[in-house]
Amino acid sequence: MPVHDWVGLWSVARYDLGLTWEEFADLTPSMFAALCTRRNIRMRHERFANALTASAIYNVHRAGADVPMVTAYDFVRDAKQSEAHEQTQILKRQILEAVTRMPSNTPRERFMTIRGNIIAELVKLGRTDATELWAECWPSLIPEGE
Amino acid sequence: MENIIQSITTPTFQIAFDGQTKAWTLCLDYRALAKIEELTGRDLKKIEGWKNISSGKEFPQIIWACLHRYSPAVTLEDVLDFLNPQAQRLLSDALFELTFPGLVESMKEESTSPNATPAVTTP
Protein backbone atom coordinates (compact mmCIF):
# COMPACT_ATOMS: atom_id res chain seq x y z
CA MET A 1 0.00 0.00 0.00
CA PRO A 2 1.77 3.16 -1.15
CA VAL A 3 0.00 5.78 0.99
CA HIS A 4 0.73 6.33 4.67
CA ASP A 5 -0.61 9.80 5.41
CA TRP A 6 -4.17 10.43 6.55
CA VAL A 7 -5.26 12.39 3.51
CA GLY A 8 -3.85 9.77 1.14
CA LEU A 9 -5.57 6.98 3.06
CA TRP A 10 -8.84 8.89 3.16
CA SER A 11 -8.77 9.58 -0.56
CA VAL A 12 -8.19 5.91 -1.41
CA ALA A 13 -10.88 4.86 1.06
CA ARG A 14 -13.38 7.39 -0.26
CA TYR A 15 -12.66 7.42 -3.99
CA ASP A 16 -11.33 3.95 -4.78
CA LEU A 17 -13.10 1.88 -2.14
CA GLY A 18 -16.26 3.98 -1.71
CA LEU A 19 -16.11 3.86 2.09
CA THR A 20 -17.65 6.35 4.48
CA TRP A 21 -15.43 7.92 7.12
CA GLU A 22 -17.01 5.66 9.77
CA GLU A 23 -16.38 2.54 7.70
CA PHE A 24 -12.79 3.61 7.12
CA ALA A 25 -12.19 4.34 10.81
CA ASP A 26 -13.42 0.85 11.73
CA LEU A 27 -10.84 -0.80 9.47
CA THR A 28 -7.47 -2.01 10.63
CA PRO A 29 -4.48 -1.43 8.32
CA SER A 30 -4.46 -5.12 7.36
CA MET A 31 -8.14 -4.95 6.37
CA PHE A 32 -7.46 -1.80 4.37
CA ALA A 33 -4.55 -3.51 2.61
CA ALA A 34 -6.79 -6.50 1.83
CA LEU A 35 -9.38 -4.20 0.25
CA CYS A 36 -6.65 -2.50 -1.76
CA THR A 37 -5.51 -5.92 -3.01
CA ARG A 38 -9.08 -6.64 -4.12
CA ARG A 39 -9.21 -3.26 -5.87
CA ASN A 40 -5.95 -4.07 -7.68
CA ILE A 41 -7.37 -7.40 -8.85
CA ARG A 42 -10.50 -5.65 -10.10
CA MET A 43 -8.36 -3.10 -11.94
CA ARG A 44 -6.39 -5.94 -13.54
CA HIS A 45 -9.62 -7.56 -14.70
CA GLU A 46 -10.84 -4.27 -16.13
CA ARG A 47 -7.52 -3.73 -17.86
CA PHE A 48 -7.71 -7.21 -19.34
CA ALA A 49 -11.28 -6.61 -20.55
CA ASN A 50 -10.18 -3.44 -22.29
CA ALA A 51 -7.09 -5.18 -23.63
CA LEU A 52 -9.29 -7.75 -25.37
CA THR A 53 -10.80 -4.96 -27.46
CA ALA A 54 -7.48 -3.21 -27.99
CA SER A 55 -5.71 -6.37 -29.12
CA ALA A 56 -8.58 -7.31 -31.46
CA ILE A 57 -8.49 -3.88 -33.12
CA TYR A 58 -4.70 -3.98 -33.39
CA ASN A 59 -4.67 -7.47 -34.88
CA VAL A 60 -7.22 -6.75 -37.61
CA HIS A 61 -5.39 -3.55 -38.58
CA ARG A 62 -1.88 -4.99 -38.84
CA ALA A 63 0.10 -3.76 -41.81
CA GLY A 64 0.66 -7.29 -43.05
CA ALA A 65 0.61 -10.94 -42.17
CA ASP A 66 4.27 -10.79 -41.14
CA VAL A 67 3.54 -8.28 -38.33
CA PRO A 68 3.20 -10.30 -35.13
CA MET A 69 -0.16 -10.46 -33.45
CA VAL A 70 -0.68 -9.37 -29.87
CA THR A 71 -2.85 -10.89 -27.17
CA ALA A 72 -4.76 -9.22 -24.35
CA TYR A 73 -2.12 -10.54 -21.96
CA ASP A 74 0.48 -8.33 -23.65
CA PHE A 75 -1.32 -5.33 -22.12
CA VAL A 76 -1.57 -6.71 -18.59
CA ARG A 77 1.29 -7.18 -16.13
CA ASP A 78 1.62 -10.62 -14.59
CA ALA A 79 2.45 -11.09 -10.90
CA LYS A 80 6.22 -11.14 -11.54
CA GLN A 81 6.10 -7.96 -13.61
CA SER A 82 3.92 -6.28 -10.98
CA GLU A 83 6.46 -7.15 -8.29
CA ALA A 84 9.34 -5.83 -10.39
CA HIS A 85 7.37 -2.65 -11.06
CA GLU A 86 6.68 -2.22 -7.35
CA GLN A 87 10.35 -2.70 -6.46
CA THR A 88 11.32 -0.10 -9.02
CA GLN A 89 8.79 2.32 -7.54
CA ILE A 90 10.26 1.71 -4.05
CA LEU A 91 13.76 2.45 -5.31
CA LYS A 92 12.61 5.60 -7.07
CA ARG A 93 10.96 6.80 -3.87
CA GLN A 94 14.20 6.17 -1.97
CA ILE A 95 16.16 8.10 -4.60
CA LEU A 96 13.72 11.00 -4.37
CA GLU A 97 13.91 11.01 -0.58
CA ALA A 98 17.71 10.88 -0.56
CA VAL A 99 17.78 14.25 -2.29
CA THR A 100 14.74 15.94 -0.74
CA ARG A 101 15.95 15.34 2.80
CA MET A 102 19.09 17.38 2.12
CA PRO A 103 19.10 21.08 3.18
CA SER A 104 18.11 23.56 0.48
CA ASN A 105 21.59 25.15 0.45
CA THR A 106 23.35 21.87 -0.33
CA PRO A 107 25.92 22.45 -3.11
CA ARG A 108 25.51 20.68 -6.44
CA GLU A 109 28.78 18.77 -5.93
CA ARG A 110 27.31 17.11 -2.84
CA PHE A 111 24.30 15.96 -4.87
CA MET A 112 26.66 14.55 -7.49
CA THR A 113 28.41 12.58 -4.74
CA ILE A 114 25.06 11.28 -3.51
CA ARG A 115 24.16 10.34 -7.07
CA GLY A 116 27.42 8.44 -7.51
CA ASN A 117 27.03 6.61 -4.21
CA ILE A 118 23.45 5.56 -4.89
CA ILE A 119 24.15 4.40 -8.43
CA ALA A 120 27.20 2.44 -7.25
CA GLU A 121 25.15 0.83 -4.51
CA LEU A 122 22.33 -0.11 -6.86
CA VAL A 123 24.77 -1.57 -9.39
CA LYS A 124 26.36 -3.57 -6.60
CA LEU A 125 22.91 -4.91 -5.79
CA GLY A 126 22.43 -6.06 -9.36
CA ARG A 127 20.39 -3.23 -10.91
CA THR A 128 21.50 -2.56 -14.47
CA ASP A 129 19.22 0.47 -14.81
CA ALA A 130 20.62 2.48 -11.87
CA THR A 131 21.69 5.49 -13.97
CA GLU A 132 18.35 5.58 -15.78
CA LEU A 133 16.44 5.35 -12.50
CA TRP A 134 18.33 8.35 -11.15
CA ALA A 135 17.78 10.30 -14.37
CA GLU A 136 14.04 9.64 -14.24
CA CYS A 137 13.85 10.90 -10.66
CA TRP A 138 16.27 13.83 -10.91
CA PRO A 139 16.84 14.86 -14.56
CA SER A 140 18.35 18.17 -13.39
CA LEU A 141 20.97 16.37 -11.26
CA ILE A 142 23.02 14.70 -13.95
CA PRO A 143 26.68 15.57 -14.57
CA GLU A 144 27.27 17.72 -17.63
CA GLY A 145 28.11 15.73 -20.72
CA GLU A 146 26.17 12.61 -19.72
CA MET B 1 -38.15 -14.43 17.44
CA GLU B 2 -35.38 -12.42 15.91
CA ASN B 3 -32.18 -14.20 15.01
CA ILE B 4 -29.07 -12.13 14.76
CA ILE B 5 -26.16 -13.49 12.85
CA GLN B 6 -23.05 -11.44 13.34
CA SER B 7 -19.85 -11.89 11.45
CA ILE B 8 -16.75 -10.30 12.90
CA THR B 9 -13.86 -10.02 10.52
CA THR B 10 -11.99 -7.27 12.33
CA PRO B 11 -8.68 -8.63 13.61
CA THR B 12 -8.54 -8.35 17.38
CA PHE B 13 -6.89 -10.12 20.28
CA GLN B 14 -7.69 -10.47 23.93
CA ILE B 15 -5.78 -9.96 27.13
CA ALA B 16 -7.12 -12.36 29.73
CA PHE B 17 -6.37 -11.88 33.41
CA ASP B 18 -7.76 -12.43 36.91
CA GLY B 19 -7.60 -16.17 36.38
CA GLN B 20 -9.13 -15.90 32.89
CA THR B 21 -12.38 -14.47 34.26
CA LYS B 22 -11.82 -11.04 32.75
CA ALA B 23 -10.59 -10.11 29.31
CA TRP B 24 -9.97 -6.95 27.36
CA THR B 25 -10.36 -6.99 23.59
CA LEU B 26 -7.82 -4.92 21.70
CA CYS B 27 -8.30 -3.61 18.19
CA LEU B 28 -5.81 -1.40 16.39
CA ASP B 29 -8.12 0.19 13.83
CA TYR B 30 -7.62 3.57 12.19
CA ARG B 31 -9.64 5.24 14.95
CA ALA B 32 -7.18 3.83 17.49
CA LEU B 33 -4.23 4.84 15.32
CA ALA B 34 -5.53 8.41 15.22
CA LYS B 35 -6.00 8.38 18.98
CA ILE B 36 -2.44 7.10 19.49
CA GLU B 37 -1.10 9.83 17.22
CA GLU B 38 -3.00 12.40 19.25
CA LEU B 39 -1.79 11.01 22.60
CA THR B 40 1.82 10.14 21.84
CA GLY B 41 2.66 11.83 18.55
CA ARG B 42 3.63 8.44 17.15
CA ASP B 43 2.51 7.41 13.69
CA LEU B 44 2.04 3.66 14.01
CA LYS B 45 0.81 3.43 10.41
CA LYS B 46 4.48 3.54 9.54
CA ILE B 47 6.93 0.85 10.55
CA GLU B 48 9.43 3.37 11.92
CA GLY B 49 6.77 4.61 14.35
CA TRP B 50 7.14 1.37 16.29
CA LYS B 51 10.76 1.99 17.26
CA ASN B 52 11.70 2.64 20.89
CA ILE B 53 8.23 2.91 22.38
CA SER B 54 8.62 3.91 26.02
CA SER B 55 7.13 1.37 28.40
CA GLY B 56 6.24 3.85 31.10
CA LYS B 57 4.19 6.45 29.28
CA GLU B 58 3.57 5.63 25.64
CA PHE B 59 2.81 1.95 25.70
CA PRO B 60 -0.07 2.14 28.21
CA GLN B 61 -1.56 4.92 26.08
CA ILE B 62 -1.30 2.71 23.00
CA ILE B 63 -3.03 -0.16 24.76
CA TRP B 64 -5.71 2.17 26.08
CA ALA B 65 -6.40 3.50 22.58
CA CYS B 66 -6.71 -0.08 21.31
CA LEU B 67 -9.35 -0.80 23.96
CA HIS B 68 -11.61 2.04 22.86
CA ARG B 69 -13.73 -0.01 20.46
CA TYR B 70 -14.51 -3.20 22.35
CA SER B 71 -13.69 -2.32 25.95
CA PRO B 72 -14.51 1.40 26.20
CA ALA B 73 -15.10 1.32 29.95
CA VAL B 74 -11.44 0.60 30.70
CA THR B 75 -9.58 3.70 31.83
CA LEU B 76 -5.94 4.58 31.35
CA GLU B 77 -5.49 4.04 35.10
CA ASP B 78 -6.83 0.49 34.72
CA VAL B 79 -4.29 -0.15 31.99
CA LEU B 80 -1.47 1.27 34.09
CA ASP B 81 -2.52 -1.02 36.96
CA PHE B 82 -2.47 -4.07 34.72
CA LEU B 83 0.52 -3.56 32.47
CA ASN B 84 3.99 -4.60 33.37
CA PRO B 85 7.13 -4.12 31.27
CA GLN B 86 7.44 -7.88 30.70
CA ALA B 87 4.10 -7.93 28.91
CA GLN B 88 5.06 -5.04 26.65
CA ARG B 89 7.18 -7.02 24.21
CA LEU B 90 4.52 -9.69 23.83
CA LEU B 91 1.71 -7.18 23.32
CA SER B 92 3.78 -4.98 21.07
CA ASP B 93 4.63 -7.94 18.83
CA ALA B 94 0.97 -8.99 18.70
CA LEU B 95 -0.17 -5.48 17.77
CA PHE B 96 2.58 -5.13 15.16
CA GLU B 97 1.53 -8.44 13.60
CA LEU B 98 -2.09 -7.24 13.51
CA THR B 99 -1.05 -4.04 11.78
CA PHE B 100 1.46 -5.54 9.36
CA PRO B 101 0.40 -9.20 9.03
CA GLY B 102 3.15 -11.45 7.77
CA LEU B 103 5.71 -8.66 7.59
CA VAL B 104 8.02 -9.99 10.30
CA GLU B 105 7.93 -13.37 8.62
CA SER B 106 8.68 -11.97 5.18
CA MET B 107 11.43 -9.71 6.52
CA LYS B 108 13.10 -12.76 8.04
CA GLU B 109 12.81 -14.60 4.73
CA GLU B 110 13.96 -11.61 2.73
CA SER B 111 17.02 -11.06 4.89
CA THR B 112 18.20 -14.58 4.15
CA SER B 113 17.29 -14.49 0.45
CA PRO B 114 20.02 -13.80 -2.14
CA ASN B 115 17.46 -11.79 -4.16
CA ALA B 116 16.57 -9.46 -1.29
CA THR B 117 15.05 -6.13 -2.28
CA PRO B 118 17.86 -3.60 -2.26
CA ALA B 119 17.47 -0.68 0.09
CA VAL B 120 19.29 2.51 -0.75
CA THR B 121 21.08 3.72 2.33
CA THR B 122 21.38 7.38 3.19
CA PRO B 123 24.49 8.74 1.51
Map the helices and strands:
The complex is a heterodimer of chains A (146) and B (123).
Chain A: H1 6-16, H2 21-25, H3 29-60, H4 79-100, H5 108-124, H6 130-137
Helix pairs in contact in A: 4-6
Chain B: E1 13-17, E2 22-26, H1 30-40, H2 58-67, H3 76-82, H4 85-99, H5 103-112
Antiparallel strand pairs in B: 1-2
Tell me what the structure shows:
The complex is a heterodimer of chains A (146) and B (123). Chain A is an all-alpha fold and 146 residues long. Chain A has 2 domains: 1-76; 78-146, no CATH class. Helices cover 65% and strands 0% of the residues of chain A. Chain A has helices at residues 6-16, 21-25, 29-60, 79-100, 108-124, 130-137. The longest helix of chain A is centred in the N-terminal third of the chain and has 32 residues, at 29-60. In chain A, 10% of the residues are buried. The model of chain A has no long low-confidence stretch (mean pLDDT 90). Chain B has 123 residues and is mainly alpha-helical. Chain B has a domain at 38-99. Chain B is built from 5 helices and 2 strands, in the order ββααααα. Chain B has a two-stranded antiparallel ribbon with strand order 1-2. Chain B is globular. Chain A binds chain B through residues 4, 6, 9, 24-32, 87, 90-91, 94-95, 98, 101, 113-114, 117-118, 121-122, 125-127, and chain B through 9-11, 27-31, 33-34, 43, 45-46, 69, 98-101, 117-123.
